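ok trying again, last paste got cut off:
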Amino acid sequence: MRNLILSAVLAGASLLGMGAVQADDIEAGKQYVELSSPVPVSVPGKIEVVELFWYGCPHCYQFEPTLNPWTEKLPEDVNFVRIPAMFGGLWNVHGQLFITLESMKVEHQVHKAVFDAIHKDGKKLATPEEMAEFLATQGVDKDAFLKAYNSFAVKGQMEKAKKLAMAYQITGVPTLVVNGKYRFDISSSGGPEQTLKVAEHLIEKERAAK
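nice, full thing came through this time. structure:
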């Protein structure tokens, strides 16, 4: 938890504005870490960009307006994936929420609303019942949500997400991983916009290596 708190403090400092990163200055050990054991991607043949996040993380919430327009413009050979980080307690509860929404194919419809509910409206969304009540206001069927939330399939996806986070060796969020090889965050990159510049640099690096 100490590392998570430190990560949040560093990310907060970055959000206040650190030096912009230039493409020529991007290198392993500075803006990103190259994983010693690459993690397989979910869609073979595509360059994968993973965001590990938590609905309760204020820095993840602040990153959304920068990240979302970027993901919508990614080329066909790039696959963007969100994975909830689960370090226990409410992290796991919110991770189960996200995976349930994905399994119901309504995540894109309500993702922003969930973030807003927590960070603007002060909702905790700490129980399945509270989640279901809120999601009903967003057009998601309560009974269908509760059934999916407690399903074997969702529990299985949670275990998969936990194993991926361990393989990526993350200690805080938001964290990005490109093609299962390169890990970086807002702190190491120097801010939200710079984080995406690092991502673009590594996407090009992987594309050139094909």
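cool. Strands lie at 33-34, 47-53, 78-84, 175-178, 182-185. The first strand starts at residue 33 and ends at 34.
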